[in-house]
Write a structure and sequence with these properties.
By secondary structure, the chain is of the alpha/beta class. It contains 7 helices and 7 strands. It is globular, with a radius of gyration of 23 Å.
Length: 214
């Protein structure tokens, strides 16, 4: 008596051979996705999983030219980062961004202090420092074409060690749209919002376990 599961497997295999005959490697991959309905994924472990359960102060540094053109960029970047991290990292909490910004405005020499100062001031366990090195909504050589780009040095400081080097550091670079300029008619504000959302998603990845396409 034929095993129905084995029979189903043989039929599926025959269909697969028929579908993929003469196809390139990339085309075979697409055929597999169509046949099975899912793209293969792999598990990626967090590079720094120690924000879970911690209170975090998010501090955003930007150049004066950037602040002049986008005066709320520090608050906007912080809020986008907090939103994505809050979705992905278990039991994380944040010092309210408005309090962090208010302290930065009162203490004009804050960038001369060790970042753990923010943690001690707000009784936060970690300080997430985002140093913006690029923030633009237009292509460098074609200023009439919209395409968002955000780049930053990202560092995490443990507030318990006031003079220590970062416990973790990385660089994040995001472009939106990733492969082309923005659609005709897309506004500067829409590009900025979408780019900040994509940047926050990229920034959060090192801090939680996730699955990515293989």
């Amino acid at each position: 008596m034929t095993n129905p599961r084995r029979g189903g497997t043989l039929i599926a295999g025959g269909i697969l051979l028929t579908l993929t005959a003469g196809l390139s490697g990339c085309e075979v991959f697409k055929a597999l996705v169509v046949l099975w309905g899912k793209e293969p994924t792999r598990e990626v472990k967090a590079e720094y999983p120690y924000l879970a359960g911690k209170k975090v102060a998010v501090v955003v540094w930007a150049e004066m030219d950037t602040l002049f053109e986008y005066p709320f960029v520090q608050y906007e970047i912080a809020k986008h980062a907090e939103y994505i991290l809050g979705q992905q990292v278990a039991d994380i909490s944040f010092v309210p961004s408005k309090r962090v910004i208010a302290l930065m405005e009162r203490e004009r020499d804050w960038d001369r202090k060790h970042p753990s100062w923010f943690g001690r001031t707000f009784d936060a366990d970690r300080v997430l420092m985002i140093e913006l090195t690029q923030y633009t909504t237009r292509e460098p050589d074609s200023p009439h074409l919209y395409r968002g780009r955000i780049a930053a040095n990202v560092k995490v400081y443990d507030s318990a060690y006031p003079d220590a080097a970062p416990a973790y550091r990385t660089e994040v670079e995001t472009a939106y749209p990733p492969d082309s300029t923005g659609e005709f008619g897309m506004s500067d504000g829409a590009i900025r919002k979408a780019t900040m959302e994509a940047f926050a998603t990229d920034l959060a990845k090192p801090f939680y376990d996730r699955r990515e396409k293989s």
